[in-house]
Amino acid sequence: MTYTYSPTGVCSSRIDLELEDGVIRSVAFTGGCNGNLQGISSLVKGMPAREAIERLQGIQCGWKPTSCPDQLSKALTAALEAAGQ
Question: What's the predicted TM-score (pTM) here?
Fold first, then answer.
């Protein structure tokens, strides 16, 4: 399944992801720190979504109460809920 998420409180404006049987197949961020977000996307590829959620949730960016990794955890959670998982 493909899923698009609109993050809040961060520089990126969109997260597109693809899940297959609860496993992350791809992640693409629009906006934000390009190199860091490409790295995060590469690291989570092939990882079970629930594992990525556990690792990424709650990460803060400087003084902000969230971050792009934290927003990715929220996107993954929403995608799993939409898929009924």
Answer: 0.96
